[in-house]
Amino acid sequence: MSYTAETLQLLAPDGTLRYSDETDRFRDRVDALDETTLREFYRHMAVTRRFDIEAGNLQRQGQLALWIPSIGQEAAQVGSGFAARAHDHIFPAYREHAVGRLRGLDLTRIIAMLRGLTHGGWNPADTGNFHLYTLVIGSQALHATGYAMGVRFDGLVGTGDPERDTAVLVYFGDGATSQGDVNEAYVFAQSYQTPQVFFLQNNHWAISVPVSVQSRTPLFRRPAGFGIPSVQIDGNDVLVSYAATAESLDAARSGEGPRFIEALTYRMGAHTTSDDPTKYRTNDEVAYWQERDPISRYETFLTARGVDAAFFEEVRQEGEDLAADARRQTLAMEPPPADSMFRHVYSDEHPLMAEQAEWLARYEASFEEQA
Amino acid sequence: MTETMTMAKALNAGLAAAMDADDRVLLMGEDIGRLGGVFRVTEGLQQRFGEGRVLDTPLAESGIVGSAIGLAMRGYRPVVEIQFDGFIFPAFDQITTQLAKLTARHEGGLQLPVVIRVPYGGHIGAVEHHQESPEAYFAHTAGLRLVSPATPHDAYWMIQQAIASSDPVLFFEPKSRYWPKGEVDLDDAGIGMHASRVVRTGTDVTVVGHGAMVSMLLDAAALADEEGTSIEVVDLRSLSPIDYGPLLESVRRTGRLVVAQEAPGNVSIGSEIAATVSERAFYSLEAPVVRVSGFDTPFPPAKLEGAYLPDVDRILDAVDRSLAY
């Protein structure tokens, strides 16, 4: 349920930065982070959380069919996302809003999906190689592995050229670790020594089922059985999330094969707006994680480093602006034309699509004639 | 240039031609490399093209198809072999919820040129899960294309056409037809993979089928001819989409249609053809469309497959029933 003796942590819940024998190897990576980047970590976490709250409100007001909150998981996402290079590829599950935003995804694209306007709707080439969300649990692990196989076949691993060496970062949750596809992904990743990092956000709950039902073994131990080096980190510590992911991505890019990170975090909200977490977990548990909140501990850390109130106010305002803008855009979103459902089912021409699109157009036009 | 060869050899030659033409074409599957596949369709290809292009994968069908999707996203053109028809179901989810839908989900921003080769059908006396005809499951799924060659010539060309397609293609190989030889025109495909074709002309009854059923329909037509019944045979070739043009044209002339398939008849390719022909050629029909199918049971133990699978007699019985109207 909580951190273990093996959980790597740099930033304690009280906001102090400490190195241990185990984490000392991250010191150079953290020291290399400049003041701007450290602030960017905060900005992304705080702004995305504000957006997330707004999207939840929009759902409650009937503007979205569903919202998938990421609140509580910002450090796991922002730290790991920052560790990826621009030409790396990222395969998310469906809760990685913060990663998407820092790769350049306009978050209203996610809103469009959950408003019922699209099943995907962005092109990874335009969103920093941030691929589409995958709703079937764990399926994307295999896509990421296949993609990483292709990267390796393309010779873009272990060249020593940081502009060329490429890695794939795939996100999934504790529920997904029970899926066959995820375990097959470990097998294929090892067989083909893919340049790939499996990033597990263990938020402790697969909708209403606790992680103890998925596994009696700490999840980071499982990949070891596949021969994949793995670590367990405090997923609410943005610094260790960054450093551990950067370390793993470097190993993957240099041709050492796949790596695995289990980030212990907590989903502060519901799985989606369709469920009620008070039915399956206790207030005490939520309070426990509230004290380990990723953003407040990082704010304490930044404040101690001398970041002033003006910066936090600026970020707060940016969050307000993003939320207001998202609301404005959401309310203006119109459904696509009905015939769009036929357009991209196939890349090449297909007679059924042409016939049925034409039939629908004639059928709809028949009402206009009658009117 | 024309060459005589088996369908297995024609597929091998077609795969090699596609790999020669495009170095992004990869073969993936269980035992396809060193062994050359359990049916030897990929024999010698790993030696020729290397382990980097002919991959003996781990034994996990979902893993094979799921990673093929990722490879296609990266710009490769994977050709996957599912070892036997009944082994495709561990990959059903990746095929129907991912492969079939990802192009639509990307709203045109992604092409997925993945070919899944499926040796299918009976007549080989094999154990459970090795003789099935699961094509209807996939024909029901939007986003997939399904074809099935009946001859070495079509096998040689259709596999290349499938690999050239920008969409996912399920390529059903009638394994009982792997070994008979036939002429392959190496210079001219003739027609595209989604065209159906009249392979024997006749005037009294139209019969249609795909894969291994086509040669059985031709045998039935030859026998019927001796008894004075003229049967026109249509090779469906493409199961999704179905090319109804030649079929409807034929039915409008003969007024009668028998649909034959190895698969169970309930909610099958044959059902779809019967419904569509009834809708579009109703006034030409002299009799209801008659279906000849496998029974709606699991594929039986091999010693019973003779009673399960449609044969020439059952086809001719159906022809007689059609003519009796």
TrEMBL record, chain A:
UniProt record, GO biological process: branched-chain amino acid catabolic process
InterPro entries: Alpha-ketoacid_DH_E1_comp (IPR050771), DH_E1 (IPR001017), THDP-binding (IPR029061)
Reaction catalysis annotation: N(6)-[(R)-lipoyl]-L-lysyl-[protein] + 3-methyl-2-oxobutanoate + H(+) = N(6)-[(R)-S(8)-2-methylpropanoyldihydrolipoyl]-L-lysyl-[protein] + CO2
GO molecular function: branched-chain 2-oxo acid dehydrogenase activity; magnesium ion binding
UniProt keyword list: Oxidoreductase, Pyruvate, Thiamine pyrophosphate
SUPFAM superfamilies tied to this protein: Thiamin diphosphate-binding fold (THDP-binding)
Ranges of residues in domain Dehydrogenase E1 component: 42-308
Cofactor(s) needed by this chain: thiamine diphosphate
EC number: 1.2.4.4
Keyword Repressor: no
Endoplasmic reticulum listed as a keyword: no
Top-level enzyme category: oxidoreductase
Family according to the record: Belongs to the BCKDHA family.
Role description: The branched-chain alpha-keto dehydrogenase complex catalyzes the overall conversion of alpha-keto acids to acyl-CoA and CO(2). It contains multiple copies of three enzymatic components: branched-chain alpha-keto acid decarboxylase (E1), lipoamide acyltransferase (E2) and lipoamide dehydrogenase (E3).
Protein name: 2-oxoisovalerate dehydrogenase subunit alpha
From TrEMBL, chain B:
Names of the cofactor(s): thiamine diphosphate
Domain (Transketolase-like pyrimidine-binding) ranges: 5-180
Keyword Oxidoreductase: yes
An MF annotation (GO) of this entry: magnesium ion binding
Name of one Pfam family that matches: Transketolase_C
Highest taxon of the lineage: Bacteria
InterPro entries: THDP-binding, Transketo_C/PFOR_II, Transketolase-like_Pyr-bd, Transketolase_C
Protein name: Pyruvate dehydrogenase E1 component beta subunit
